[in-house]
Structure formats: C-alpha cells, structure tokens
Specification:
The structure is a single chain. The protein is an alpha+beta fold. Helix content is 40%, strand content 11%. The radius of gyration is 14 Å and the shape is globular. It is built from 5 helices and 4 strands. The longest helix has 12 residues. A hairpin with a 5-residue loop joins β3 and β4. It has a single domain, classed as Glutaredoxin.
C-alpha cells in the first residue's frame, strides 16, 4: 500500500499513526516533493472511482488564482483538471491510500484508513 501525504497535514499524520498502530506495510510518498505525473493522477482517480474536481482542494490559494470554481466539471474538461493537479500538487486532497486490491481511498477519517486496511487484507 502507498500513502500520498503532506507531512504538515494533521490528517496525514493521523493516518500514518493508525497505519503504524495496525502494523501495516506501506510506502510513504511525499507528493509535494515527488509530484505525480498526469498518468499517475489518472490511475489514482480510476482506483478512487472519482473525478479530478472531486479530489481538488478548492480552498487553496492557487485554486482561487486559477479560477477553478468557474471551470466546467465534465468529461471534456477532465484533462484540464488533471493537468492543473499535476502542475499544482498542493491542490490534491490528502492523504490518499492505494490498497493492494487495486482500489484507493481519500483517507481523511479513521474509518477511511480502516477501509484501506481492510482492502489490503488487514483489520
């Protein structure tokens, strides 16, 4: 399992603590430093079953600068959103855990982390 984190994020730190408590085997990806490429973002979106605007942090300053609130949320605009996420990784919701079963979750709650653990054959 891999977890995309921003170490400054309290939700990320909580998720890591829970993974450690449960003895999970995972890899940490500091996605602000090791920025995911557009293809990686597409793959994670497929695993999440979500669209890019659903994992975009709309309150970030860069979201406001780009005017993301005005961007269409449709299939024709999907690539534009993915390009923005790759160019500005701070916009990506966190933490994201990819499980061994091919799925992923946005792990902002203890329940979501436990769901990822269950998908990974734990908990």
């Amino acid at each position: 399992m891999e977890i995309w984190i921003n170490p400054a994020c309290s939700k990320c730190r909580s998720a890591l603590s829970l993974l450690d408590e449960e003895g999970a085997d995972y890899t940490v990806r500091r996605y602000l430093e090791d920025v995911p490429a557009e293809d990686e973002i597409r793959a994670v979106l497929d695993r999440l079953g979500l669209e890019p605007w659903e994992i975009t942090r709309m309150q970030e300053a860069v979201a406001k600068e780009l005017g993301l609130g005005e961007w269409p949320k449709d299939a024709g605009s999907r690539d534009r959103w993915i390009t923005a996420l790759a160019a500005h990784p701070r916009l990506i919701q966190r933490p994201i855990i990819t499980a061994e079963d091919g799925t992923a979750v946005v792990a902002r709650s203890e329940e979501a982390v436990r769901e990822a653990l269950a998908r990974d054959g734990r908990a």
